[in-house]
Design goal:
This is CoA-dependent acyltransferase. Keywords: Acyltransferase, Transferase. By secondary structure, this protein is an alpha+beta fold. It is about 30% helix and about 20% strand. It is built from 12 helices and 14 strands. The chain has helices at about 15-20, 50-65, 105-110, 150-165, 175-185, 190-200, 225-230, 250-260, 265-280, 325-340, 350-355, 425-445, and strands at about 5-10, 30-35, 45, 70-75, 80-85, 95-100, 125-130, 135-140, 240-245, 285-290, 310-315, 370-375, 405-410, 415-420.
């Protein structure tokens, strides 16, 4: 089982009258949620457009990409292993509901329509909702994580092309099966797991404390830990979020990193390690780090739709001493570690965790960490401009981890989106952590006496 993120999107096209009048429809693409889960995640995408156009267009996109026709079934001989069964054609991908009161269409669209019990059908469901006034929402739900953010961009692009009658790009030259074959071959090399055994040797689980009492066993699958804790207080746990500007000048930071042969990912990972060290009182800290997986040596992997990402354990050891000595050393060591981890990035996080924590007495921690960090580019189409067709409105991440920090590197600034369960901490605690992360970035920038712009 790999830890995997998922996305939820919402598109809004204009109403039927806008299409009939010949005006150009627009789509608001809202990334509602991206999950970082290790098992059985649920994914939802909500969108709006015209059923008469959307259903055949969506069907063409489904038939075009094997990942959207793939069943994920547990192996009978090894239930922990998931088998990928690709259908020649989709059989129940789209459902259309019409004549819905416009005042309640958003509420109805928000209700789950994908059964979590039936594990034998497609791992996703696409539903189109049309109101009595012509407003249309489209929702994609998934039982498993089968797409990454790059895949979402490609699917949105293909959906737009299909709506416009433009032929879809040829995917025959980059079959998803080539990625599956590579991963199966890669997993046979024992050196990958041996690396993680050595890298995480003698590590103590790193658990960030929240506002409320925290379970020492760490997070359970699908937020069960939060559901259990919240049940005692009589409410259903919800994901909350806090936004924090980490830096106002991305260009200057890039120049700062280039001068020192570092990366922005490197800087933000060390900054989060500083926060964890300050909060836990320990010099040896660990957290989850999201990797895209698209640097695998698989032909045309950048054009594939599917799931390639993983969450890796990122361990950073801090030392006492002057910042200009300690942080420079930590930054360089962390930079080297980035490359080493990337060479072994496709290992199962749950298997790595079992190897590191296995054999412990009953009641011992079952997780290495309860926070996860991702550093990413904004969700945009990399092949052609789509600003007039799609617009990202919101990102909310639902996760098994107590807190996920998504740092987005924009052209002019770096923003952090801290997502957390309200059964773990409150908004004030999240704001404090966001501020601490911003201060840690600033601390790194001046560690050698050369701040931004120097």
């Amino acid at each position: 089982m790999r830890a995997v993120p998922e996305e939820f999107i919402v598109f809004l096209l204009g109403r039927d009258s806008e299409v009939n009048s010949g005006s150009k429809p627009t789509i608001d693409a809202v990334l509602v949620s991206r999950l970082l889960l290790t098992e059985n995640p649920t994914q939802t995408r909500i969108a709006s457009c015209y059923p008469s156009i959307q259903v055949p267009s969506r069907s063409r996109v489904v038939e075009h990409h094997a990942a959207l026709r793939t069943l994920l079934l547990p192996s009978r001989s090894n239930p922990a292993q998931m088998l990928h069964i690709v259908l020649k054609e989709s059989f129940d991908a789209v459902e259309v509901l019409t004549n819905i009161d416009d005042a309640i269409i958003s509420e109805i669209a928000g209700r789950p329509r994908l059964s979590s019990c039936n594990q034998e059908g497609l791992p996703y469901k696409f539903t189109v909702f049309q109101s009595t006034t012509g407003r249309v929402l489209c929702k994609l739900e998934g039982r498993y994580a089968f797409l990454d953010a790059t895949s979402v961009i490609m699917l949105l692009t293909d959906l737009r092309r299909s709506l416009q009658g433009v032929p879809l790009a040829d995917v025959a030259a980059c079959p998803y099966s080539s990625w599956v074959s590579y991963q199966q071959s890669w997993a046979k090399d024992p050196s990958h797991l041996h690396f993680w055994d050595h890298y995480l040797a003698n590590l103590h689980p790193c658990m960030l404390a929240g506002t409320f009492a925290h379970d020492s066993n760490g997070p359970l699958l699908r937020g069960q830990n939060h559901e259990r804790k919240a049940a005692t207080r009589g409410f259903r746990p919800q994901m909350r979020s806090h936004r924090q500007t980490l830096l106002q000048d991305t260009r200057a930071l890039r120049e700062w990193c280039d001068q020192r042969r570092l990366t922005i990912i490197n800087v933000i990972q060390v900054a989060w390690a500083l926060v964890l060290s300050e909060q836990t009182g320990r010099d040896d800290v660990c957290f989850g780090a999201l990797v895209s997986g698209r640097d695998a040596p698989v032909p045309h992997i950048g054009r594939m739709v599917g799931s390639f990402f993983n969450v890796l354990a990122c361990r950073i050891v801090l030392q006492s001493g002057p910042d200009h000595q300690v942080l420079n050393h930590v930054l360089q060591a962390s930079h080297r570690s980035l490359g080493e981890r990337a060479s072994h990035q496709f290992c199962s996080l749950s298997e790595v965790t079992r190897r590191v924590l296995g054999g412990k007495e009953s009641g011992a921690p079952s997780s290495l960490f309860n926070t996860c960090l991702s550093v990413e580019q904004p969700l945009t189409d990399q092949t052609e401009p789509i600003d007039s067709f799609f617009r990202v409105l919101e990102t909310v991440e639902e996760t098994e981890y107590d807190m996920v920090v998504a740092a987005t590197v924009l052209s002019d600034r770096i923003e952090a989106h801290l997502m957390f369960w309200d059964s773990f901490c409150d908004a004030a605690r999240a704001a404090d952590l966001g501020g601490a992360l911003a201060r840690a970035v600033e601390r790194i920038m001046v560690c050698d006496g050369m701040g931004l712009g120097a």
